[in-house]
């Protein structure tokens, strides 16, 4: 009995752990699983409730997203009813190709009316220029003094400004291309005003029918061309842009102002034409190849070829 009282007493203490290395990680995994299942449920619900037309539109969107984003159209979200057969055609397979379903309105342009409107606007601009030059002539004592030698009118080519000779007041030195001082002043005033319109100009020199003969073969043709070019230089000195000049020609006595009297001093003149668009186009296409069927050009050439030659004047004095 004494030995049994000396037997040691062993107490076993059991330590309760928290799941070892697992801890609470299973809770996070379970939450992810529940979230995935919810997302899957929502996806299946959306697929089941979306019409076929909408699905096709979504498919087209992801095929060509840039095209749909820029132009919009009749793809995703265009159905007006979720019931099969309701609203618009829900079975369409075309992608989004236009911004709306409104019928396209075809624009038509009346070229004839547009051309007529441009011509009318251009005529108004040339008339305004004519009135301004006339007002400048009246306001300037120098120009008003030579009013009778300044002729302004509207022709088929545009606004024509003619500076003509008088018996006792010629524009140029006799039988030369040297401008008189007052002629230079007139051209300076006109040159500055011509910059107010975008139209280009044509210059032509004219003489009367008095023959001009010299030992070197210099004739009225050379004289009229030289006078036209001298006038061009003075217009530029007056402030006109050089690029506005499209044509400079000498016509001698081919086109007299006074047809009844070919020796009238008024036939000696400088003609400045502020050309309209049609006249400019005719000059710019000069010399182009004529195609078969171009009846207008062919008729013009035929008339020029078949025109009778002008009769030479009889018994005029000779310009030296």
- Output the structural class: alpha+beta
User: Helicity, in percent?
Assistant: 40-55%
Number of strands: 5
Beta-strand proportion: 5-15%
CATH superfamily of the largest domain: OmpA-like domain
Instruction: Supply Rg.
Output: 47 Å
Structure commentary:
With 320 residues, this protein is an alpha+beta fold. It folds into two domains: 26-102, no CATH class; 111-286, 2-Layer Sandwich (60s Ribosomal Protein L30, Chain: A). Helices cover 42% and strands 10% of the residues. It has ten helices and five strands, in the order H-H-H-H-H-H-E-E-H-E-H-E-E-H-H. The protein has helices spanning 2-5, 25-49, 52-63, 65-71, 111-139, 141-145, 181-193, 220-237, 277-284, 295-306; strands at residues 150-155, 158-164, 201-206, 245-250, 269-275. A five-stranded mixed β-sheet has the order 1-2-5-3-4. A hairpin with a 2-residue loop joins strand 1 (150-155) and strand 2 (158-164). Residues 75-87, 93-97 and 297-315 have low confidence and may be disordered.
